[in-house]
């Protein structure tokens, strides 16, 4: 598996994003929240993903952008943990929910926890 995050993997469609927020399920591991929805999409990748850092929590744009970059990088390097275990197609939105800025290593640990929670929830529901 390539460690890339290309255009086809990014969640850009307003329609899909609205559908995700309306009907998606959530997995939380402070300070990260994953909203996901099983839905067929035209991408060859099993997951389309988006990242959000609310202005309410992080006021400065430079800080929001830095956090989003770190989130994308952590996802890009660890997406194999999730992609290898999925048979269906999903859309994901990762939301950063704290005011403090985490270090890269801490953010990576939180992502892995969220991935484990998501996969265990999928096994529980029998979806995968």
Folded structure, characterized:
This protein has helices at 14-23, 61-78, 80-83, 104-125, and strands at residues 25-29, 32-38, 47-52, 90-96. With 128 residues, it is of the alpha+beta class. The chain has a single domain (7-125), classed as Ribosomal Protein S5, domain 2 (2-Layer Sandwich), CATH 3.30.230. Strands 1-2-4-3 form a 4-stranded mixed beta sheet, with helices on both faces. Helix 2 crosses helix 4 (104-125). The longest helix has 22 residues, at 104-125. It is globular and about 40 Å long.
Which CATH architecture is right?
A: 2-Layer Sandwich
What is the mean predicted local confidence, pLDDT? 92
Residue fraction in strands: 15-25%
Structural class: alpha+beta
Helix and strand run? HEEEHHEH
Biggest sheet, open or closed, and with what strands and sense? 4 strands, mixed
Spatial strand sequence of the major β-sheet:
1-2-4-3
- How many structural domains are formed by the residues? 1
CATH topology, anyone? Ribosomal Protein S5, domain 2
Give the termini distance in whole angstroms.
Answer: 19 Å
Low-confidence spans: pLDDT under 50, at least 5 residues?
none
Shape: globular
Count of helical segments? Answer: 4
Strands, total number: 4
Radius of gyration: 14 Å
Q: Could you name the CATH class?
A: Alpha Beta
């Amino acid at each position: 598996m390539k460690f890339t995050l290309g255009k086809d993997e990014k969640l850009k469609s307003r329609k899909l994003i609205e559908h995700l927020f309306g009907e998606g399920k959530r997995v939380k591991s402070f300070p990260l929240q994953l909203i996901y929805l099983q839905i067929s999409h035209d991408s060859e990748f099993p997951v389309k993903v988006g990242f959000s850092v609310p202005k309410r929590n992080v006021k400065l744009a430079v800080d929001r952008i830095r956090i989003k970059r770190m989130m994308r990088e952590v996802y890009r390097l660890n997406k194999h943990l999730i992609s290898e275990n999925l048979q269906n197609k999903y859309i994901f939105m990762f939301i950063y929910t704290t005011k403090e800025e985490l270090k890269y290593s801490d953010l990576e640990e939180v992502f892995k926890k969220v991935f484990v929670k998501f996969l265990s929830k999928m096994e529980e529901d029998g979806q995968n």
